[in-house]
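Give me structure tokens for this 397-residue protein.
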Amino acid sequence: MTNRLAKITALAAVGALALTACGSNSSNSGSTPSASDSASAMATSSASSMDSSSASASTDSSSSAMGADYKPTCPGGSISGGGSSAQANAINEVIKDYLAACSGAKINYSVTGSGAGIQAFIGKQTDFAGSDSALSADKGEVAKAKARCGGNDAWHLPLAAGPIAVIYNLDGVDKLTLTSETLAKIFAGKITKWDDAEIKKENPSATLPSAAISVFYRSDESGTTDNFTNYLNKAAGDVWTEKHSKSWKGTGKGADKSAGVSQAVKSTKNSISYTEWSYATKNSLSMAAIDNGNGAVELTGETAGKAVSAAKAAGEGNDLKLDLQYKDTPAGVYPAVLVTYEIVCSKGLDSAKTALIKDFMSFYASSTEQKKIQELGYAPLPSDVSQKVLTSAQALS
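Here you go.
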């Protein structure tokens, strides 16, 4: 755990470089209970967790790199959100800790996938959405969100970051390297056998089976799918010609949400899929190194952090959406990374709900909670980013 925390802390530090100039982008499986299902047990189970986090934060010098802490004001009330399964493990932990500190509040988060989360938010079924991709102007989501917010802009608050792992299940193959082009061919159905000449060329020392490749993909509309297909399109556009989308356009068999694809690969020999790093590590799944043109790169906090450092600011003012770069990555950069946003109304909600959203989002961005989620396989926010999120959250009205 110490080595993993060191790697993820490195990700936070290097990720800060990217955003220094930002102006201020259903239910889970049994292994990852949803916040709404476990709300009644949260306050009881989390007191010791909060105590150990505080003690750890006081002794770990790296916590200072994660921004200022935040003491919740506990305005009470009730809010609901839903969407991204990529952040499920993180937001469940934060909700548990918040309810331990603020027992009079009620916060429900349904793990439905990013697409469904956005639609529920636009349809006024929830008070905020969790999404691994920003609202789409082309699909009318930006305009619909503005209408939902009473004519006010919706803001993107980045609160959990992590790379997308290419997970696989191959007996006897502990290390696997795939170029972006080969990955695109596998997920497009153009390479169908594990002993294909292209895969063998990239893995000369591996004993690859003469077996069909079982491809799994997210069957729900997913920000993880959106980010992964954006990477495939930009890095291997001659092969993956489809533009990025929350809905899968390639080959394979669908599985429900991140927990579903992770379990599908774990239980199916000769399979491959994509999921967030936190799910890959939680399920002890093998992860392929990716060669994006400048050599094979294994997934680590440092290599993913270099990709985060290349992100560009895409929002204005307190809207903190980012533009991740997937093409022409330098040597040592892991190219497939996502950021999970909480999408909130800048204005226009009931004042009681706004007060609780401000408090909860600020708490999520705090150094204590960002340190907690790194233990679950996420990248904690760099200090300057957490400060910007705190500023944006406190500007909600």
